[in-house]
Design brief:
Length: 130
């Protein structure tokens, strides 16, 4: 049986990573900094394991549609991806030429309200210009 609280082939769960980081934070900092600056993502961290979960309240579990397959990646990989995502989100907000100012999706502190206001602005501007 696969323990879904310890995803990934390496079976290292979040609790182990948290305690290791508390014991040797400099090692984690140096490793992740080197990975980030080199742009390298270890192949072993990209290898998922797949499991199939039954969906709730299905009348017939003999049918394939009553199940949902999921892929579990190592937590070390998820941590690296989170660091990349946070760094890219930060750069997207502080570098003026990195993204178009009208880019809303996937950016922090931007919402559907911002998109609606931007659309309203464009409509009003084009009405004035006819």
């Amino acid at each position: 049986m696969i323990d879904v609280t310890a995803p990934g082939e390496d079976r290292i769960n979040w609790r182990i990573i948290r305690e290791a980081h508390a014991a040797i934070p400099n090692v984690f900092y140096k490793v992740y900094k080197a990975l980030f600056h080199s742009g390298y993502h270890p192949a072993a961290w990209k290898t998922p394991i797949g499991i199939v979960l039954p969906k709730r309240n299905k009348p017939d579990y003999s049918r394939p549609k009553a199940y949902r397959p999921i892929s579990l990646l190592p937590y070390l990989s998820k941590l690296l991806e989170k660091l990349f995502a946070n760094r890219l989100a930060y750069l997207a907000n502080v570098e003026p030429d990195l993204l178009e100012s009208s880019q809303i999706g996937g950016r922090k502190q931007r919402s559907a309200t911002d998109a609606a206001l931007l659309l309203q602005h464009y409509i009003e501007r084009h009405r004035q210009e006819k």
